[in-house]
Task: structure prediction
Amino acid sequence: MKKFFAILVCKLGRFVGKLVGRGSSLPGKYALKICPDILRQVTLPRYIIAVTGSNGKTSTVEMIAAILRAEGKNVVYNEEGSNQIEGVTTTVLTHSTYGGVMKADVLLIESDERYAAHSFQFFHPTHFVVTNLYRDQLTRNGHPEWVFDALKPAMFPETRLILNADDPLSACFALDRDNVRWFGLDRCSISTEEPSGIYHDGAYCPICKSPMEYRYYHFNHIGSYHCPSCEFGKPAHVDYAATDLDLEQGLLTIGQELTIHLAFRSIYNVYNILAAYAVCRECGVCAEHIGKVVNNYILKNGRMVRFLLGAHHGMLLTSKHENSIAYDTNLRYVRSTEDPCTVVIIVDAVSRKYYTSETSWLWDIDFGRLNCSHVQKILLCGQYASDLAVRFSFTDVPQEKIELHPDITEACNSLKAGGAEDVYVLTCFSDRDKLLTQVEKEAV
Amino acid sequence: MELRFLHFYPDLMSLYGSWGNVALLRRHLEDLGNTVTVEEIRPGEQVNFENADFIFMGAGTERSQKAALEDFARFGKDVRDAADNGVTMLFCGTAMQLLGQSITDVTGTYFMGVRVGNFSCTQGKKRFVGDVYGHTDLYQSPIVGFMNSCTLVSGVLTPLLTELFMGFGNEQERGPEGFRKNNVFASELTGPILVKNPPLMRRVITGIYDHRGQALPISLPAYPMEEESYRIACQELKTRFEKE
Result:
């Protein structure tokens, strides 16, 4: 009876919530109050795929859903990003019968990395994808090893882990257990002998803290690592390996059999595709079918937005504040472009979800990448423009290229007033609407 | 002057922009006409503490901190002597704990510190993460920053921040925070604390000059962007805690 009532309340709550535009966590919260172990009582589908990590969760989940749906599977996932237990409960119950049977072939969950152990206390995923573990949102997450420790209890023995072989910290989840599959990228045209970025989180072994050696790096501390002291290293065999990558041409080859075109030529996109590819292969989808879906796949999650501002064609590259690797990846992308451009960086509210005035993370971002001839001007905007200015004073970017515009509207107006060069905007969800309300959106 | 910095474990203890402290301090001292040499020390490397003008260690994860301590322990006497002789030091985040008597980790394992201060640190499963606004008895204006700690620190008699209006102190919410002795400044505040606090930067520079027996120039260069960032952080945090 409790089960029925919890499902009823959740469905009603979700219906009303949609009408009034409320989030998707509340109905699940009420259902859990009525029946705390409701998730244990529901019959779930054969495949339960969880995706977590510091970066790329939403994009990876979107692509997994697209691939599996193209196979005719009924995929249910928390599209609105409510990724703690309440949101998961809402997703499950609103797609269940009143008798408690979920109407889906696949339950796909984007899971908050710190709360996964809590979310999965009543049921265990069949597959758990960890995209990566980086420095991310220190205001919530402390530091990556803290997140690792919080996530570890969610790695149940019967769950098949799908891990990034090139990320030393998330690779540690494979220690002392079986049932692991790896995805990764072989040495390719983007690989370097030296690490990039301001800090080097791969300098020391995550297990024994001895100095690590790298055969190559793909970006930051992601690459082929090896600890001479304890022998921890990138797995010798990577189950789903990209064997070639040409970011200039936008071509990615996975294994020997599949080459796909990248709609967005970013290394992030590559790893997200690899993660989605790996888990879908594990679910029985053939390489060719995956290729058809992800070839030139344009993400619909709105993290990349094209716009017009005066005579400027612009692109918003959403980069989570407090996440230096997300910024570095987008800075790398801007640097890889060739046409003259202006770059706008907005730091006005550090987070949309909680209050903080913390700006240490600016010092972890490799802003020096913007020191290239085609970046003609850099506008530093928002309340923390002066913090950005201090940080930029420690790059080689010529100071005459830098303009300060604490007022975002004033920055937009100054761009509108003249010039026709491309504009790239780097900012977070917390600040992007302050730009998007002042531009004309274009199709991606 | 020719000044010599010792920067301990720049890649092991480097969470969240710690390097900004050394970079900005160096710039300010060079702007005053000094030559600054920064020696980066990694585990296992030899160190000469003689003539050191500034010793720095940034924040690290709890596991990195233990690796740092294992190496740093061999310098205990050198560090204590330097502290007693008035050498300026800054230890941020988890690095502060190395200066105490002991660290007990979450499993109950005990580690001996280098004993510059008579305090002990106990790490737990709860994390204290958030903005900090407080006062020091070093100067009038506030100290602002960010804390990211899972440690209770007990036994500090001379805290760096004597009063907190926002944030978690050594032992309790809004209690005194950090540690100070002569020119040794230590705090659980992570990141570029000197960048965020121009008055503390001036105090550190004063400490370096004092130790050399030199007077600071009467007129110091202006850094309007740093001052503006500090003004905004103070204003934002003050508004916040007054609301609460």
Observations:
- Chain A has a mean pLDDT of 92.
- Chain A has two domains: 2-294, 304-442.
- Residues 2-20 of chain A form the longest helix (19 residues).
